[in-house]
Amino acid sequence: MKKINILIIEDTILTAQKMKRTLEWAGYHVVAIASRSENALEVMFQNEIDIIIADINIKGEINGIETARLIQNNFNVPVIFLTSYHDDNTLREASNVDFTGYIVKPYLDSHLLREVKLASLRYGLSDKIEEIPLPNNYVYDAKNRTLMKGSTNIKLTKKEEQFLHILIQNKNHIVSNEHIDLALWHDSITCDENRRQLLFRLRKKVPDLEIQTIKREGYVIKIPEKVI
After folding, report:
1. 143-159 pLDDT, tens per residue?
2. Rounded to whole angstroms, how far apart are CA atoms 173 and 141?
3. pTM beyond 0.85, yes or no
4. What sign has the CA pseudo-torsion 198, 204, 206, 207?
5. For residue 75, what pLDDT is reported?
6. Which domains, and CATH codes, for the chain?
7. How many Cβ atoms sit within 10 Å of the Cβ of residue 228?
């Protein structure tokens, strides 16, 4: 499965690392964290980047807005701005760049993921994701969010589909309870019983998929490398 590649331009390391964890939990690939304009430009010329998340107020002679403008002179890539300010002057300066989203600190993880999702849809990046072969003759279409077993379409509820999608995006890695709550219940911390019941229903529909519960941590779907 091809993942969407993201470059984070942020000079506050704690903010950047938190953002990286959230994005990678959601199935994206953070290629690099750049703290200055020159670092960001170097990453762009050496890697295939799909989305940029840039703090407007990075340190150095060139701020995040000007860095994004320089990048877009050479690459057709969506930019999401991150800033501590929310005023007309900042928006006017940012309007010189074709940015797709605007996140004000402190932000909710759900807001970050929503802006990245909107950018990926606007630029057609979801087309990068291919059909994913799974064990026991299952095939998951991540673009259309459908699961097939042979020629049979496995009908899933919305939450079952969301749960399975997150697990497959993070195949062979534990997805935390907190991340599942964020993705499925939108910032509300749900009770363990809701997750258990959801998994119970999903396992009944896909008994041949190995979905494991990791006590007090989260869940993982096991997919052998030879199938991926």
Report:
1. 677 899 988 999 999 88
2. 20
3. no
4. positive
5. 87
6. 5-126 (3.40.50.2300), 130-222 (1.10.10.10)
7. 12
